[in-house]
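## Example record

The block below lists the input lines for one assembly entry, exactly as stored, with component labels intact.
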Amino acid sequence: MKNTNIQTQAQAQRPELPQGFSRETLKTVAVIAILVLAFTNFSEVINFLVNVLIIIYQYVGESFGIAIILLTILIRLVTWPLNAQQMKGAKAMQEFQSDKEWLAIQKKYEKNAEKKNQEMMRLYRERGINPFGSCLPTLIQFPILFALIPSITYAIGSTPLSILKLSSSLYPFQDVAALVPLNSKFLGFDLGLPERTLILGLSIPVLALTVALTTYVQTKLTMPAAANPNDQSAATMKMMSIYMPIMLYFFSVNYASGLSVYFVASNILSIVQYALMGKVNWRNLLPGGQKK
Amino acid sequence: MRKKLLFISIVLLAAVLLSGCTGAIAWPGLAATDETAYLANTNTVYAIDLKTGRELWSFSGVSSGFNLFNTNPSLFVTTPVITEDGLVIILDSSNKHVMYAVDPNDINTEEKTPNVEWQFTEAGGLWIAPPLIVGNRLFAPNSDGKVYVLDLQDGKTEKQAIEVIQLSDSNEEPGRLWAQPVSDGERIFVTSLDHSVFAIDIESYKILWDQDLGGAIPGGAALGSDGNLYVGSLAKQLERFDPATGDHTPVLDTNGWIWGTPIADGDNLYFSDIEGYFYSYNTKEQKLNWEPVKPDSAITASPLLLDDRILLATESGDIFSVDAEGRIVTWYDVSDGKAYTTPIFAGGHVLVAYLESDYYLVALDEEGHQAWTFSGN
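Predicted C-alpha cells for the full assembly:
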C-alpha cells in the first residue's frame, strides 16, 4: 500500500507530456537527438575512442590485440543495458506477434495495408509496446561502431597516413612521439593492415574467415525461436544470418585486420552476454533446429 | 523467389563495391623524367605525358592466383625510381610485397601496360621507402627492418637479394624503414621508425654505427655542404651527425614532428614540420636564416627548390612560395585535396600530386597557373 502511494506520488511529480506525445515518442526523439549529436561531432567521437585505445595499449604492455579486446569488453559493458533492452524489446515483439488479436488483424486486413497499419498501431498503443523498442538501443550504438572503424585504423598507426591522423587525434597529454612506432603485431598478424596468411601456397584471409564464422554462429545462437517460421520477421532473421557474415567478411578482408579482432571479440562477447541472460538458442546451430 | 534473387544480387553488389574500398595507407608517390611523370596512386601507377597531361600507360601489378572479387588488390604509394637504363622501379605496398621493374619502352599495346622486366618478392614487409640506386646496385629498405641489396645487371627476371642487411634485431616489431636512404659514396645512411639512424658500409654491407634519436624518423637524411648528415625526427629536433663516427648533436628544436626529408642547398638546409612551420637553417653559421614561417597547415612534403623561390605543399592542398628573405605568398590555391607528396619540377612544369581530390595530379606553369590536370582517365 505504501509502495503504491510512492508510485502514485512519483507519477504525479512527472511533468505532463503534450497530448499525443507518449513517453515512447520522447525516447525516440532522444535517440534521434543523440544520433544527430554524435554524427555532427563524429571526429570527436573518433578522437575519444583513439585516445581510449592508446591509453589501454600503454597499460597492457603495448599490445594492440589485447587493447582492442579490452576496448570491446568496455564497449559491451557500457552498452549492456541497451543490449538488454533490445533483447527485451525483441522478445516482447515476438510474443506480440503470436497474440490472437494481432493475428486476427493480419488476417482481417490482409488486403488493406493502410487499415492494417492503423489497427496495428492502435494495438501497440493499447499494449504499451514500442515497435521500435528493439531497434532503438541498436541504433544508438551505431556512432560507436562507425567511429570504431577509423579509430582502430588510426590508433594502430602502422602506415604513414595513419600515424599522421593519429598525431592529430590524440589529446595533448598523450606523448605519441615516444610511442611511435606502435606495436601492431598480435598473434603474428599485423593489425594495421588487411591480413593474408600463406597456407599451402594460397593467400588465405584467416581473420576475415573467422569473422564470418563467428558472426554466423553468433547470429544463429542469438536468434530467438520464431513463433511462426513462415512470418516475415522469421524470414528476415534467416536472411540476416546469411548476409551479415558475408558483409562482415568483405569488410574485414579489405580493412586493417585490427577490425577483425574487434568483430571476433564482439561476436564472442555477444554470445557470452546472451548466454548469461539465458537467451542462447543452441538448437539453432543444429540442422533444422528451428523446427523443433 | 524473385525477392531472394534480388537480395542475393544486392549482397553480391555490396560485396564487390566493398572489395574496392581499400583504404589509402599513404599519399601518392611521384617521379618524373623530362617527358613523363610517373604517379603511384592507390591501385595504379600512371605514366603521364608531361606536354599534354594524357595517360601513356598504366600498371596495376601482376595478378597471381585465385583472387575472389579482387579482394587483394595491389597498392602503389611509394615514389617510383627510374634506373639509368630507363626502367621504372615500382613497389607494391600491399601485403604482396612485390617490387617490379617495368620497361616504359616495351608496352603491351592491347592492355596499354608496360612489360615487367624483373620482379623481386623476397621482402617480408610493406614497401614504403623508395630504393636508392648506387651504380649497378639497388638498396631497398623495407618495413620488415631489412635493407635488400639487388644487382641491377644480373639479367635475372626473378631477382634475388645479393645481400640482406638486418637493421632491427626484433622479429616481433621490426624497425620500419620508410625513407629513401642517402649515400656519400662510401656509406649509405638509413633512417628507421625505431628512432635509429644507421650507417652501412657500401662495399662490405656492415653496419658502421647506429644512433638513437629519441623519436621515430619517417623521413630521410640530408647531406649538407659541410659534409655532415642532418636528420629530423618525431622528437621535434634536427640533429647533425658526423657521417664517419655517428657522433651527433641536436642543432635545432622545432615546433612539431619533422616528417619530410630536409633539402640541402649550398649552406642552407630547408625543412618543415607537421605543425606547419617551414625552416631555413644555415649549416655554416649554425643558425636560422629567418624565423620559421607558417603557411597554413601540416607539412609532410619536402620543399621544392626552384631558381628564384621555394615551393611548399601543405595538407590544405595549397602551394606556397617562399623567397630568399622568408616572405611567403599563396602560389596556387586549390579547392580540395591534400598535398602530402613532395612536388617536383619536370618538363617545365611544377607537378603536385593530390590525395582526396578529383585530380590525382596537377601541372602548374612557372607562374602557378594550372597547365593541365590528370584524374586517372
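DSSP finds one helix and 32 strands in chain B. Chain B touches chain A through 41 residues (CB under 8 Å).
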